[in-house]
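Exercise 7. Predict the joint structure of the components listed below.
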Amino acid sequence: MRPPSSLKQEFLKKWIMGLQRCSTVKKNMSILERKKAIKLSADVAMASARNGKTCWSRAIIANASKHGSDKHLVEKILGPESERLIAKKVSTGALCNNRIRSKKILKRSWGIRRTRKCAPQVALASFIAKWLVRKRTKVLKSLIPGGEFMNEVCLIEETLDYIISLRAQVDVMRTLASTSEIVNHN
Amino acid sequence: MSNRRSRQSTAGVSRISDDQIIELVSKLRQLLPEIRDRRSDKVSASKVLQETCNYIRSLHREVDDLSERLSQLLATIDADSAEAAIIRSLIM
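Solution:
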């Protein structure tokens, strides 16, 4: 995994590129429009810092490229590699498929045992536990971009990477917001 | 257990072991602020998933708030001030 500071630098560089592009395209934006532009640039910048290696980043790029007006922004941020990265499929195909076999292993590692003979309370508890895991896995899939294409193992790996990237994104944005506010008040 | 471990995947690619998965789950636990601070080793799977979802949702919300803040900041900046020029040249 890349060290956090270079990830942040990469993100900042691309985010600023995107923001400058937004402002040259449309001069007088409403607050809401500007907010959307800032957010979109940030998300695409975060995704492009991964260089097409993760499912979630490809999903973000694919979604952003769907709308004509946003596609140019995506291309600007991605730079010369944009054609290749936009065309990349969201589902990783072979990479995820060979992990499907580990579905059973994963379920077992969650500590859920299928016991044939056991007291009703234990069976009920185990049933509830299984149901909760399944339900929450669905929620997680809805939160990670491109999550609906992933099996459980892929999902956890993508989640790890996604959380790290989100944190970097939040840190950079927070720093920029606070310094801008300080500069503005002085 | 050993039978399952020795089973080859049809694509001939390396198998995922139990240990790898346990490692992934523990890495996830490390990232979550709530669970990391707790001493106990035993955290249920559903709890980990729940905390993960909550954490991601809160991060999304923060990004949204920060975008709002930045957008308003840029709108209220006094157009002619030197500070505005600094910020403008940096971002917009």
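Discussion. Residues 45-76 of chain B form the longest helix (32 residues).
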